[in-house]
Design brief:
The chain is mainly alpha-helical. The chain is 46% helix and 5% strand.
């Protein structure tokens, strides 16, 4: 579904001027490198070891090519920075829930939430299963769980 801006009775597709330019150029470079780099008329770029996608290079592209690199032209479910952020939030939320599991084990006024931890193997198994499933969902779930696989970088 294309990004649109509503104005009265009509809807128009967003254009380059509707975005903050430095962020748009970064986005367009990312899209160019993922979708067009080394293909068709851009095949020679792979041979050029000094080639860098930056604002100046994007400006040299035709208006039609730049228009294809706008957010409105992205495929549904494509990996974006917003999807990456949501993946981090999802991962953080689940890890906080796991931490809360440890805190919820002790209802009295005990301070050490880890005391007697290994006496309850069911708790250990459920915690390990939850962690493994969480990482599997983020790494391999992709469009199904709307996550971008994360790495340590």
């Amino acid at each position: 579904m294309p990004d649109t801006e509503k104005g009265g009775d009509h809807t128009r597709e967003l254009e380059e001027g509707d975005f903050e330019m430095t962020q748009l150029r970064k986005f367009q470079c990312q899209q160019f490198e993922n979708n067009m780099y080394g293909e068709g008329e851009f095949e020679d770029l792979k041979k050029d070891k000094k080639w860098v996608c930056d604002d100046k290079y994007i400006e040299t592209l035709s208006a039609d090519v730049r228009k294809e690199l706008l957010p409105a032209k992205m495929e549904e479910g494509a990996m974006t920075q917003k999807l990456l952020l949501f993946s981090y939030v999802f991962q953080t939320f689940v890890m906080m829930q796991i931490f809360n599991q440890f805190n919820a084990r002790k209802l009295d006024e005990e301070i050490n939430v880890f005391s007697g931890l290994f006496r309850n193997m069911l708790f250990i198994n459920i915690t390990i299963f939850t962690i493994l499933m969480q990482f599997a969902m983020v790494e391999f779930g992709g469009p199904i769980v709307k996550c971008w696989p994360l790495n340590l970088n």
